[in-house]
Here is the input.
Amino acid sequence: MNCILHIETSTDSTSVALSQGGAILAEEEVREAMRAATDAAPMADRMLSFADSHAIPLDAVAVSAGPGSYTGLRIGTSLAKGLAYGRGVKLLSVPTLELLCVPILLGEELPEDALLLPMLDARRMEVYAAIYDRALHPIRKVQPDIVDEATYAEFLDRPLYFFGPGAEKCHTMLESLGAHYLGCEPPLARWMMPLAEQRMLRGKTEDIAYFEPTYLKEGVRNTPQNT
Here is the structure.
């Protein structure tokens, strides 16, 4: 049973979780802006202390890979790399928009042909978004969108569910077009677990020296996602 430390710092929320064999053993989160720099490392240290005190060997460190806040992702990635290198374990990356889909898939009753539209806030009416089916196969790759009535028109022939930190500012307009709003909860470390476990099983690990996340400010049109 793999033991994985999960680090999520892509938005204003900061969270860290420890899992083993598909179960969350411990977790901490703070939903305040600008706290990753002060809170992420102590949170991770407490998770690792828990594992060490229970004689649970760490197998991997997983980090939310963006898109997301430049500062937040730099902090999370640097911490994850340092811990993975120092402990001699594998580094895993979880795309943040896929991560946003996990609690939706686990907690909502969705039709078989549902499309998932996770959103991260950029500026004004711009979001970073992707569209997935229920198996998290990408129907449309991650890209920045200026949201208006035509942005997702081609996908409205199927039930379209939108959510995430970027969804609140456009929910009235998209609901009027027939899309379904599922809230604006931030990505949390605990929901990284099934995606990290899947990557571990597939051997989809990152090079600790060269891995870089996807930043909102750099855009994502030319940056491939690790799917």
